[in-house]
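Box 4.2: Ligand-aware structure prediction
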Amino acid sequence: MVFRLWLLLVLVLQLEQVSCENYTYSFTAKEIKAYKQEVRELFYFGFDSYLEHGYPFDEVKPISCVPKKRNFKDPNDRVTNDLLGNFTITLIDSLTTIAVLQDRPRFLEAVKLVERTFPDEDFDVDATVQVFETTIRVIGSLLSSHQYATDLTKAVYLGNEYDGSLLRLARNMADRLLPAYLTYTGLPVPRLNVKQKFNFPDFTDSLLAENNVAAMACPVFEFTILSYLTGDSKYEKVTRYAFDKTWSLRTHLDLLPMSFHPEKLTPYTPMTGVGASIDSFFEYALKGAVLFDDSDLMDIWDVAYESLRTSCKNDWFFANIMADTGQLFVPWIDSLSAFFPGLQVLAGDLDDAIAKHLMFLKIWNTFGGIPERWNFSPPESLSSSPSEDLESFDLNAIIPLEWYPLRPEFFESTYYLYRATKDPFYLNIGVHLLRDLKQRFKSNCGFAGFQNIITGELQDRMETFVLSESLKYLYLLFDEDNELHKSASDVIFSTEAHPMWLSQEVRSNYKRKAKFSDLTYSSHLEACYERDKELEAKENTLRGRIVGFAKSIFTQDEPDETPTDAILNHKINDKVPSICPMKPSHVMDGDSWYSPILSKFRRLFEIDTRYAATLIKPAHMQNYSAIELEPAFYSRWSNPQFSTCQIMATTEIFELIFDLPGLHQLNPLISDNETITFETFGGRSRLNIERIQIYQIDHYGELITASTFRNISRRDIYSQQCDTTASLYSPTFLYRVVAINGHTLPRHGTVHIKEHNFVSASNNTRKKDVLIIGSVGINDRAQLMIECTPIINLILV
Ligand SMILES: *[C@@H]1O[C@H](CO)[C@@H](O)[C@H](O)[C@H]1NC(C)=O
Ligand SMILES: *[C@@H]1O[C@H](CO)[C@@H](O)[C@H](O)[C@H]1NC(C)=O
Ligand SMILES: *[C@@H]1O[C@H](CO)[C@@H](O)[C@H](O)[C@H]1NC(C)=O
Ligand SMILES: *[C@@H]1O[C@H](CO)[C@@H](O)[C@H](O)[C@H]1NC(C)=O
Ligand SMILES: *[C@@H]1O[C@H](CO)[C@@H](O)[C@H](O)[C@H]1NC(C)=O
Ligand SMILES: *[C@@H]1O[C@H](CO)[C@@H](O)[C@H](O)[C@H]1NC(C)=O
C-alpha cells in the first residue's frame, strides 16, 4: 500500500523532456539548463555572502552585510533566540543544497568547515532554543549530509576524506534535545537549554506553557533516522511515543487542535487546519509511513487526511476550523499551508493538489509573495466594492500578518506538481520565481524577503530556509537529471528539504540489532505507558446524532432568470458573464503542444472572480502581470482547440453536515461510472449541495435545462411530512450534491449510500425513524430530501 504513493512520482521521472527549439517561447533543454545554472549562481551568491559576512555566527543580514547573531543579552528575545543558538546554522542548514548541486569540492570544503567550527564535536552552548526548529534545521541537515558523504552512488561521496563527524554531531545535538521529552506526559516542552546535558532541565512556567502539534510530534522523523544510523533505538522510541500520544489527543472528528499544554494535555486553541503549528504533523505521518515502511503511520495519515477533507476543505484551500465542531474558526489561511499541495501529490491526490496550488499562485500574482496570513473574507464594510476606491482601501484588513521571508512552501509544491505532471505551466512559475528572486529580493549580501508585503519594504534578514529550501526546490525543478530523480531507493525530503533515504542494509541492520539501553529513557517511557493505561479506562466520547448546520458558503449575485440566446445556444461570447480574462491573442500551427492546465482546466480563472474582494494588488505590484497570463507563454502553450472558458456560475452552494453514530467510511468506493458508494455513513459527513434552477449556469459552467426537472417526486415513503397527494410535481428548484467529504463529483456523478446502513446509523432498525434527523426524508425514487426537496443525485440503495 505504501508504494502506491511513490509510483506516481517514479513513473513521471521516466518521461523525457522534449525540446522544441522553433518556438519563440518554449522550454528547451538548453533554456532549462540555463535556468538551473542561474539558480546555482544565486545559491552560491547567498552562501558565499554568508561565509564572508555572517560566519561564524548564525545568519547574515542581506541588506546591511553584517552577521545576525543570537541575542545573548536578552534571553527573552524569542524571535531571534528560538532559532539562533550560535550554531553557525546557515552553514549547517545549507550543506545539503551543495550536495543537491552535486558539487563535491564545495561540499568537502563545507563539511571541513563544520568540522573546524566544532572541533570537539559538541554543541556546548549556553542557549535555550526551540526543540523542533533545531531538530529540523541542525539534526536533519547533519543526517542528510552524512548520508550523502557516505553513499557511494552520490556525486558528493567523500570516501576516506570523511570519518562520520556529521553523524556524531547530529547525535550530540539529539542527546542535548532529548531531555525535553522527560515530562510527566512524555510530550516535549517547546524549548530547552542545550547546555544542560542529561540533567532534567529547569523548566520555567513560560517554557512549559504551550507547545504546538507539529513541535510535539515531528521530531520523530529525524530522530528515527538517527536511530537507524546509530543502532540506538531510544531516539525513535521516545519521539514516537510523543507522536502517537499527540494523535491520541484528537477530537471525535479526528481533528487535532493546533496546540496544547504539554503537561496538562488541555488544548490551547480549538483551531485546526493545515498551516502553522500543525503542518508537519500531516507531512511526517505520510513521509514517515513511506520512508520507514510503517503501516501504523499510514493509517494515521489516511484518517487525518480524510477528516481534513471532510471537515475543512473549502474548495480552493483548507480553512482553519474548530477541531471539535468543524465550523469555520478564522477567515484566513497562512503562508505555511502552501506546502500542502506538494503533500497531496505524494498522497496521489493530484487533482486536488493542482487546484489548491493555484490558490497560492493567485496570491503570489497579487502580492508578489505569500503573506504570512491572507484573509479571504474581508469585513462587511470593505467587501462592497474595494476596487472603486483603491487609495483608501485598507490592505491591512486582508493581510493580518504582512511579512514574507521568502518561505519555501510555494516553491516546494510547484516542484512536486511539476514532477507529477510535467506540465510546462509549473516550469513557467519557476521561471518567474527565479526572476523575482533576482529582480526583487536579491540584495547586497543575500536575499531579503518582504518585511511588509503591502508597502514592498524589504527585511534585513535571510532565514536559513532560503538557501536550504527555496533555492533547492527551484534548482531541482530545473534539474531533470539530478541523481535524486534517478535514485533506486525512495528519497523523501524532510520538512526542511533535507533529502533522506535508507539503504536496505541500514534497514535490516536496525531491525536485527537495535538497542535501547538508556535507563533514564526506558523507565521514563514505562511510566508513561503505565499512566496511559489508567487513563484509558476513563475514556469515553459521546457522539451527536442530529443534522448539523446548513449554511451558504458561496453565493453569487441574484441569478438572471431570463437567459440570453447566447446561453441557450450554449456558446460563449462577450454577452455571457464569463470568468476568463481577456486572453492574449495567439496563433497556433496545429501542433499539439500545450499545457494541459492552461488549456483544459476549466476553473483556471475562477479564483480571480471569487476572491476579487481580497486579492487586491498593493501599489508596488501594479505592473506585475499574472504568471499564467504572460503573453509569450500563453500563446505558446495554450491550445485553443482544447481551451475552455468557464461561464460564471449563478447557482448557490451550501453545506449540509451529518453527525451520525456508527462507522465513518474512510475510502468510499469511487467507480468509473461516476458513482461514489458509501457502505456505511456514520461519523461526520459534509456535503456541498448546489441549489439549481432552470436556466441557471451551474458550478460546472453548464446550463441547467428543463430535462433535469422532469419526473420529480417528493412523495416521502416513510412519513406524511411532504405532500403525498401530488407526488409528481414541477419544482422551481432542486438540490444536487457537488462534493461529499471533500470528494468532488463530476457533473453527472451520483452518491450511493447503502440505505440499511444509513438507517442503522441513526440507531434504529425501523426505516421511518430516518426522520429522526430533522427535515430529512426519502422519496419513492430513493432520493434523500431536505425539506421535501429531493437531492437528485443522492440515492439510498
Ligand atoms: C524548425 O525549424 C527548422 C528550420 O526552419 C525546420 O527545418 C524544422 O522542421 C523545424 N522544426 C519544427 C519542429 O517545426
Ligand atoms: C558564539 O559564537 C562565536 C563565534 O563562534 C563565539 O566567538 C562566541 O564565544 C559564542 N558565544 C557563546 C556565548 O557561546
Ligand atoms: C508601472 O509602469 C509605469 C509605466 O511603465 C511606470 O510609470 C510606473 O512607475 C510603474 N509602477 C511601478 C510601481 O513600478
Ligand atoms: C455504477 O457502479 C455502481 C457500483 O459499481 C453500481 O452499483 C451502479 O449501478 C452503476 N451505475 C450505473 C448507472 O451504471
Ligand atoms: C419516472 O421515474 C420513475 C422512477 O424512477 C420511473 O419508473 C419512470 O419510468 C419515470 N418516468 C419517466 C417518464 O421517465
Ligand atoms: C443505540 O441503541 C441502543 C439499544 O437500543 C442503546 O443502548 C444506545 O444507547 C443507543 N445509542 C445511541 C447513541 O443512541
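In the box above, the bound molecule is 2-acetamido-2-deoxy-beta-D-glucopyranose. Residues 1-25, 540-576, 582-592, 760-772 have pLDDT under 50 and may be disordered.
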